[in-house]
Amino acid sequence: MTDIQTPRPETRIPEANGPFLVAALYHFVSFDRFAGFRQPLQAVCDDNQVKGTLLIAHEGINGTIAGPEDGIKAVLVFLRSQPEFKDLEHKESWASSMPFLRMKVRLKKEIVTMGVEDIDPNKVVGAYVAPKDWNALISDPDTLVIDTRNDYETAIGIFRGAVDPKTKSFRDFPEWVKNNTGLHNKPKIAMYCTGGIRCEKATAFMKEQGFEEVYHLKGGILKYLEEMPQEESLWDGACFVFDDRVSVTHGLKEGEHTLCHACRQPLTPEELSSPRHEEGVSCVHCYDTRTEEDRMRYRQRQQQIELAKKRGERHLGS
Question: Residue 266 pairs with which residues in a beta bridge?
């Protein structure tokens, strides 16, 4: 078993756009000692005031963390000091307030769950396409563009001309592919997701299903929004992110969306003005699917959240 290594120095970058640095990362690698790595990783994050979620499994690491710039850099140095993660890549953005409540390092069977056995992106995967080359690929009439995210994510933003599978869960994606024989009508398949990790498994699955020319956006939507000038962009809307910012736009600026804490759907400013919206209780997406008993429970929770705010605290249910 490989010993846990000590960190090495890393160069700082200047702060921009907010006090909290957010790092999204994943890395597929054979990581047999993942169970013993949980506590040391949790300790490094806690010691550096870093919060978020990191998933570790036999197949690698995945997650998003946020904190002071020095703290995030320290965690990244620690991760890259491990032999398995020396080539770890990450994507950075900024948040005006801490987007996570606590730090969780979790042991998992998979770092992203598709529910298909023996899919290994280290063995077979689609061809990576840099953000600067993405527009040309998806504008090619011989290319079918597929969004691998779920319906609540695609609802607020999508690449122009992309097919939306409208899945509720990534586990639904393989079945959607098998039920859509028309996907074979074009020679090229271009796939994308938020940060790139879902496409690692999705493109591997597509290759195993017999698709030959399969491509995916390197670094995902986040890298595209970071690097592509808005005037040249083929992205419409905002990108859903799994933290309290809810969405980001071009330049990875914080979007205008908020989250309904009853159904976890992203809400636009216009939807907030709907008479069906009640903070923490209901919104236009869930009003008809919740009972009055549900709404009573949500109101009680919201009251506790408001009381915590008055005390200068943050309620875990917020």
Answer: 259
Residues 151 and 214 in one domain: yes
239 catalytic residue (yes or no):
no
44 and 73 belong to one structural domain: yes
Has residue 119 been placed in a domain? Answer: no
Read off the pTM. Answer: 0.87
Burial class (CB in 10 A: 0-12, 13-18, 19+), 89: middle
DSSP classification of residue 64: E
Query: Does residue 28 lie within any of the structural domains?
Result: yes
Task: Say whether both 99 and 142 belong to one domain.
Answer: no
Task: Quote the domain boundaries for residue 273.
Answer: 266-310
On whether the CB atoms of residues 224 and 238 are closer than 8 A, the answer is no
Selected catalytic residue, list 193, 260, 283, 286 = 193
| Cα 1 to Cα 34, 35, 224, distances in angstroms | 11, 12, 38
Q: Which one-letter amino acid corresponds to residue 252?
A: L
Q: Could you identify the residue written with the tokens 């399969």?
A: 214
CA nearest neighbour of 278 among 254, 296, 257 = 296
The token pair that represents 118 in the structure block: 């023996």
**Boundary-marking domain end, from 38, 72, 107:** 107
> Domain tally for the chain?
3
Specify which residues 213 forms β-bridges with.
Answer: 188
pLDDT in tens, 47-101: 999 999 999 999 999 999 999 999 999 999 999 999 999 999 999 999 999 999 9
Residue 227's alpha-carbon distances to 110, 126, 216, 231, 289, in angstroms, are 30, 21, 16, 12, 40
- Give the CATH number, domain containing residue 37: 3.30.70.100
Using N-to-C axis directions, what is the helix angle for 220-227 and 131-139, rounded to 10°?
Answer: 100
